[in-house]
């Protein structure tokens, strides 16, 4: 029996890779310079490190370095993209389009904009979590300024057809932002091929440090109103002293992620397959989200015949797992993503999100499934309604 719960929450965050930590360490004490201090070697050293990191991160998405703006994470990048574009394009209109299944870091800025006079269309998704392209096309209006649709969903792992969405937006003359917090260094991303105008990134889902991310902005075509005013860093788009250690760590994490991308995805797919086979054998299990268009490390499933909060409470001592995003599950709310897929609130709560990462082992999956099997069997027996609930959840 392991002492600590097994970590199966890689979509919430990931531990730092020790190699990333090594890359960051010199920039805390030995090389403390402010990259904006142009007058001395400490400043140059920091500026050089940031330049290299910016090149690395830009290269990872086929962008040019000047188009990468460092932020405190994907939440800030999303806020800058959505509110920044909305404010900068008032002359064009006040309408935005997004998805019901977006992360709260997209939905909340959209709701804020609604409260100050903008209009937002929240597109529904299909039963498999994918956007319907014809619905997107129909939703675009002459006053639409931005479409914001995530690359990879943080709860169900579903990968949206970003290239098709980008093409539609390009043809209709609408800017396209994508929250790629879950996708960077896990799938290959090319902002040119995908026709993306703005892309949000973060480091802590890929074994990098928390508190650092970036926004890609296609220059010079995209205009943006800054949301943080100050010393004018990052071309005046995001003021504040650049966090050299975090930026260096972010770039290192991206580098390692890309180097390991294919073998790691194959390994994760195999692990997930094994997990799914055992889970399925419990009967009364429904997978949430498209089984192929998905992140390799993510599996979300609804467990019929159990009380969700009860199940999670039983699992917590053994497994660090969640029923939805870190933001909603700790408030006891059913996942808005699973509701959008058509699950009832009770079934949404009786769902598990497995986040497998690069430190997840075969033995951990075996152990996790032993625990889940025992717990689910026990709870179903208690309820005396094994498989009684209809698999049709709509
Ligand atoms: C984690 C996450 C965010 C928030 O990123 P932070 O860097 O923690 O602010 C935004 N969007 C998605 C899809 C995420 O998974």
Briefly characterize the structure.
With 394 residues, the protein is an alpha/beta fold.
What does this structure look like?
Helix content is 39%, strand content 13%. The protein contains 12 helices and 12 strands. It has helices at 18-24, 41-60, 74-88, 104-115, 133-139, 162-172, 244-280, 308-315, 326-329, 336-340, 345-349, 362-383, and strands spanning 6-7, 68-71, 95-99, 119-123, 144-148, 175-179, 198-202, 213-217, 285-287, 298-303, 319-320, 351-355. The chain has a 7-stranded mixed beta sheet, with helices on both faces. Strands 9-10-12 form a 3-stranded antiparallel beta sheet. Bound molecules: pyridoxal-5'-phosphate. Pyridoxal-5'-phosphate is lined by residues 73-75, 103, 105, 150, 154, 179, 181-182, 202, 204-205, 213.
List the helices and strands and how they pair.
Blueprint: E1 6-7, H1 18-24, H2 41-60, E2 68-71, H3 74-88, E3 95-99, H4 104-115, E4 119-123, H5 133-139, E5 144-148, H6 162-172, E6 175-179, E7 198-202, E8 213-217, H7 244-280, E9 285-287, E10 298-303, H8 308-315, E11 319-320, H9 326-329, H10 336-340, H11 345-349, E12 351-355, H12 362-383
Parallel strand pairs: 1-11, 3-4, 3-5, 5-6, 6-7
Antiparallel strand pairs: 2-8, 7-8, 9-10, 10-12
The structure holds pyridoxal-5'-phosphate.
Pyridoxal-5'-phosphate binds next to helix 3.
Coarse shape: globular
- Helix-strand sequence: EHHEHEHEHEHEEEHEEHEHHHEH
User: In which order are the strands of the major sheet placed?
Assistant: 2-8-7-6-5-3-4
* SS field, number of helical segments: 12
What Rg, in angstroms, do the CA atoms define? Answer: 22 Å
**Structural class of the secondary structure composition?**
alpha/beta
How many DSSP-defined strands?
Answer: 12
Estimate the strand proportion: 5-15%
Query: Average pLDDT, to the nearest integer?
Result: 94
In helices, the fraction of residues equals 25-40%
